Amino acid sequence: MSSWNTAGTEGLRVCRGVGRVGRGSDGSGAMVGVESSPGSGGCGARIYLTGEAKSPTNNPITARWGLFFVGLVVDTETHVVVEADCTATLSLTREFVAELLRGRSLLDEDALVEVITARYHGSSQRALAAAVRNAAHRYREIRSGSTA
Predict the structure, then answer these.
(1) Hey, is 20 helix, strand or coil?
(2) pLDDT per residue over 106-133, tens digit each?
(3) Which domains does the chain have, with CATH numbers?
(4) Which residues form the DUF3870 domain (predicted)?
(5) Handedness of CA 69, 124, 54, 139 (dihedral sign)
């Protein structure tokens, strides 16, 4: 069973059993979502989307995947990132990125990039910020109904 870091989610209502997100090779990881409007009768619909960006040529991410990808589960009612993952090679990096993004609004991409710049000092910092901006752009397209 997966453990979930709930740091920064104080005062948020937890919604259980809203789906499954595969984590690791065993595919475990029941998804736990949070919403910021207690008493609204349930969590908003969740969507999965990705963002992508070029990573540095000397980065193992480039050798393994070619691009840097970030995957996000977003609550469409609150626009909050419920869960995040990325194509980092180290599990610690993936966990840290998820912690940085979880609980933040995808509509405030400047704040997302700001927290990445302030707290993530890995070699793929620019790629992570660009991938998050790309995901935020896709989310705005989805909301406006102009997806490709």
Answers:
(1) strand
(2) 999 999 999 999 999 998 999 999 999 9
(3) 44-144 (3.90.1010.10)
(4) 48-140
(5) positive
